Please model this.
Amino acid sequence: MSSNPDSYKAAWNARSATLSDGMAAVDGSADESVLAATGAFAAQQVRAALELLPSDRVFEIGCGVGRIGTQLAAALAGWHGIDIAENMAALARARVAAHPGATASAVDGPNLEPFADASMDKGYCVAVFIHMDKEDMVLYLREVARVLKPGGLFYFDHWNLSNPVGWQRFAYEVDQVGRGNPAERKDVARNQFCTPEELRLYVRAAGLELVFEDNSAHFAQMVARKPDHALAPGAPSPLPIDPARLTAGAAAAAARLAAVRADIAFSARCVQCFAECCEVLIGGVHPSTVLARWRAEPGPSPDVQLHIAWLEAIWHRHPHLWPPVAA
Ligand SMILES: C[S@@+](CC[C@H](N)C(=O)[O-])C[C@H]1O[C@@H](n2cnc3c(N)ncnc32)[C@H](O)[C@@H]1O
Model:
């Protein structure tokens, strides 16, 4: 384990010394039932984005405690999570142990060394690229291009600077840094942000074809495909997907994914719920105010119910930030 306090490894091992810490680090809740609910939500997006099959061998970059892997592993031929933190990998390994073919291991940097060239069918990375420098993200994308089989798909997300709620979240970080000590190095595990144009460049520079993107939410979501044959060299493009410029296999994948966009993308209500959570987390509003608003909705939608459970768990973990309110 690295003892460098500025390393990703030290930062994330420190956040996952116990199961409760590890759960809090991945979705903020430290509550098994909330973790299962947020994990099921994310797993549903991954399933739709990757068109998962029972024969698939799938990897996850930054698997955390296996929040998503535990939801997917039973229906796959293989699931292998990798994480920079040994503690996270050990927690994930224990939590997927019931599934033959599922495991997790630690890596020392932006590499996918556990996997041979062209050995994996599909891969994904959720809420992880947002916690690293862009150079490391690009190095991981190059590794994705190495380990995927031709035609293999890779789904990932990133904070989306071009969305108003994504921008608001970034502005909060800017203000935090502004209030801090300018002589201190910034937390290596802090949240980082991208525009869709940047993400397109990184995908294409790694030799992958972009076959799906949705930038309507505070998280940009993308699916990249390893081409059947190496692409002709050339400058990567920041432009959106143009089906006419894709290889035949990529164009077919893009058409299939476009048809299931609603299953991959965040709903407008979900984005609104996240914005309302930001009123609490960064805007100083008491959680009881937002919870009361949501509970008053007739027949709250599944998106609202998920956010109610999540915000309640966050409040429960931080009673000192938001004192109980009189009934
Ligand atoms: C917010 S958690 C998300 C975990 C999981 N993907 C999920 O959605 O439940 C971020 C995870 O990324 C891992 N991580 C952070 N930096 C990493 C890096 N450079 N390489 C691999 N994993 C990293 C952390 O240890 C942590 O487990």
Remarks:
- The pocket of S-adenosylmethionine is lined by residues 8, 12, 25-26, 42, 61-64, 67-68, 83-85, 88, 126-128, 131-132, 136 (CB under 6 Å).
- The domain at 8-265 is CATH 3.40.50.150 (Rossmann fold).
